[in-house]
Design brief:
By secondary structure, the chain is of the alpha+beta class. The protein is built from four helices and three strands; from the N terminus they run ααααβββ. The longest helix is centred in the N-terminal third of the chain and has 51 residues. It is elongated, with a radius of gyration of 31 Å.
């Protein structure tokens, strides 16, 4: 019986379980992992927003290309759209669609959609005499970029009318 007790005492003499140091190290590793996951989520939101803005810009650019193709006489009206021409756009009044609208109203509506759909949204349309068309839409990305040169994103479509 004494042998049995000796084996029993030997088992209890060794500590089983975790020490405080091991628990602290495990918590540190868990904290670093959770911080990495939080950074991953932040980057995911950023890239999702950027993709959404690129989709909007693409749709707006192809919309104006389609309008110019279907109404070739309006090409000269859209050719005057420059980045500076967006200074007078009022998104509260000009975005209404009208089925009987003329070229000026269509241009004003499209410019309004660009300016209201994208942060600091502006566009430039260049129609060359040979029928080559370039539509450039740019918008601000100030929330994500700290460098001034990287704060503007531009989407450009080239086509032939």
């Amino acid at each position: 019986m004494s042998m049995h007790m000796k084996g029993f005492r030997g088992a209890t003499a060794r500590q089983r379980g975790f020490t405080l140091i091991e628990v602290m190290i495990a918590l540190l590793i868990l904290g670093v992992g959770l911080l990495g996951f939080a950074l991953l989520q932040t980057m995911n939101v950023r890239f999702t927003k950027s993709a959404q803005q690129r989709t909007v810009a693409s749709n707006l650019a192809y919309e104006v290309v389609d309008i110019m193709r279907t109404q070739r006489s309006m090409g000269s009206y859209f050719n005057g759209v420059t980045y500076a021409s967006f200074d007078d756009v009022d998104p509260d009044t000009a975005c209404a669609r009208d089925t009987d609208a003329g070229p000026e109203a269509n241009i004003a509506r499209w410019k309004c959609e660009v300016s209201s759909s994208l942060p600091d949204g502006r566009a430039r349309i260049v129609l060359a005499p040979d029928g080559n068309l370039t539509v450039s839409i740019r918008w601000g990305d100030q929330h994500w970029e700290s460098e001034a040169d990287d704060q503007l994103t531009t989407f450009e479509v080239k086509s032939r009318i």
